[in-house]
Amino acid sequence: MSETTTRGRPPQPVANTRRPAATRPRIGRARRKQYVAAYLLVAPFLLVFLAMLVAPLVFSGYLSFLQTKLIGGETFVWFDNYLRAATDPAFLGGLGRMALFLVIQVPIMLGIALFFALALDSGRARTSKALRLIFFVPYAVPAVVGTLMWGYLYGNQFGPIAQAFQALGLPSPNLLGEQNILGSMMNIVTWAFIGYNMIIMYSALRSIPSELYEAAEIDGASQWRIAWSIKIPAIRPAIMLTVIFSIIGIFQLFNEPSLLKTVAPNVIGSAFTPNFYAYNLAFVNQEINYAAAIAFALGIVIMIVSYVVQLSTQRKAKDFS
Amino acid sequence: MVTRRGNRRWLRRATTAGALVASAALVLSGCAAGDGGSAEAGELTQEQIDEAMTTPTTITYWNWVPGVEEQVALFEEKYPAITVNLENVGNGGPHYAKIRTAVQAGEGAADVVQMEYQYINSFIVTDSLLDLAPYGADELEDNYEGWVWNQVSRDGAVYSIPGDSGPMGNLYREDILAQAGVTEAPATWEEYAAAAEKVRATGSYISNLPSNNPGQLVGLLWQAGAKPFSYDGGEKVGVDLTSEKAKEVIAYWQDLIDRDLVSTDADFNDQWYQGLATGKYAGWVTAAWGPVYLQGYAADTSGAWRAAPLPQWGSGKAVSGNWGGSSAAVLKTTKNPIVAYEFAKFINGDESSALVAANDLFLFPTLKSVLESPDFTSQKAEFYGGQEVNAMFAEISTTVDTDFDWLPYIDYAYSSFNETLGKAIADKGDLLAGLEAWQEVLVEYGTAQGFTVNG
Predict the structure, then answer these.
(1) What is the pLDDT of residue A34?
(2) Which of A232, B161, B237, B356 has an alpha carbon 20 to 30 Å from A10's alpha carbon atom?
(3) Where are the beta strands (DSSP E) in B40-140?
(4) What's the mean pLDDT in B56-61?
(5) Are residues B7 and B105 in the same domain?
């Protein structure tokens, strides 16, 4: 699929030059030196990568095949934990919630981010630098602080939103109630990540050659038309990137449920999001093995969803061309 | 749930004064005349203890209460050879999670750890706690009320040295109750319900039944004589949340909730503090650490509050339950058991240390000598209109029902509360169904963990 994206740049030529090995001995020695140097340079990273990422991953993979009981100890249970996950209403419920989150929140967030990126890029906004900063600030605020702040804003009795409603003599909505909590959370995530996604899109927009715009203008295209027919298609890979990031980010949602639980303890359950569930399994329920299985299952789900999304959009891209 | 309130937990203990077990630090030369259970302790001579306490040693103590360093300093002053590393590894939940992890890893664990009473069984089941009886802890029994001792001991073994506690009482706004025509603190739950109705007419709730706090409700079950949890120290647990007595308690609160006489807000958050400060709640069914805690959040209402014993299930009774408090346990992984035990005993049992806990940390004591000391009991609290609140709670402390046990998986029990009974309370729904759901998940979990559950 890489040929359909704009990514297929230098690899082929480089790979090809390596093949013809007529004068092998001489080049071989030089190459060997290069290889050694390359491996030496990569070694520190590789070591840390293996020790800190691969090894723990393998180990937790191993853990996910065990079962530890408070009474009875450890047994190897093959895929039992995964089978349990596949039928665990708590886990599936969390996944469902996140799927809903994905379908509603991501389009809104990325739509707004795209709109802002285009607005900044059009150069119409005089104070574009300041605006860029302002949009980006929420992302710079630590998620924990941001969530605590929103938790206060959402408060039923003393939160400013509720007070505004009361001042108008209207019944204040329970933003932390069962019906609204997911929407409230979507709002926090949207608020935090618009700026981040906007910057990605904006920097992609800046790399479009301006000749294209000039040509389009000469052809009599409006700004809207330019945005729709030139800019958006041109930054499609960047948009795809933000989509994939968002999918991964949302399935791994943790801070928001974990912190909002203090203000809405009975609405946000221990399995509100799959990631939060894994945490609670490991550290509250003492089911480390099942938590490891949940974590892996979640990773697999994320991979599948990301792949499906990527695949489907690429098909669309092909259809267009 | 501990995690949630953890950062404030340290405040939730009340005052203390003198402890007179100072001598105990010097005594405990085994049991020449002792009973059979401590036969091994006879091996431990005073010389051995002296030697251990004068050999340069470093031990680690995990505790999250701010101010504990003062107590540690006293210990180090007394035993210059011993160095204590005081570490705060988290409040509540994270603290216990780290202990479990370190014990499992076999290294990195502290020698002595702070341990709330309800967690002790969950460390007994993993065989993580050192039995302190052979080190002389069995001789400390008489220093405590029976119910306190039962919390830390089992079958002759002593797993932890009691520190503070939270016998339950009733704090209420005298002015609001008077305005409603209630001139005396309700003595029975029946009177409490009647008072609640009158108080509601003034716009306030007589109190709040938190939807997220199993500790309080379990304390109320404790008072009612329900024994929802049991554990035999081995593989057998009992879950009996749906006993007649428990159902009675639940039905009582169901009635108050249905009639909108109590609110069901989550507690220990900003809204709840506001509710206490503004008179939304005209009272708080709480523990002995509550009075001092409340002063910090409702300063404007100083003088209007009073303390009373819990309303009773029937006139003429005087029974209470306990909510909170903690002890000092020695982990089995320690390499210096004698020093660790002496430290635990000093921190919670020495008079000078207990005084610090009382005066600076506001922890409600468990030592009888402190609870009976006039220095402690005769303090008059302005916030409570000059009432001798300590004396009242010291008195209540002697009325706590003696036997109350915990599940060896209390973390799960408390976290699942929020999704079962707690949720029913928050939704003002069917509390009995919530109670049954809680019972069910606890039986399920226990069975899955390999316990024999006879719930």
Answers:
(1) 87
(2) A232
(3) 57-62, 82-87, 112-116
(4) 96
(5) yes
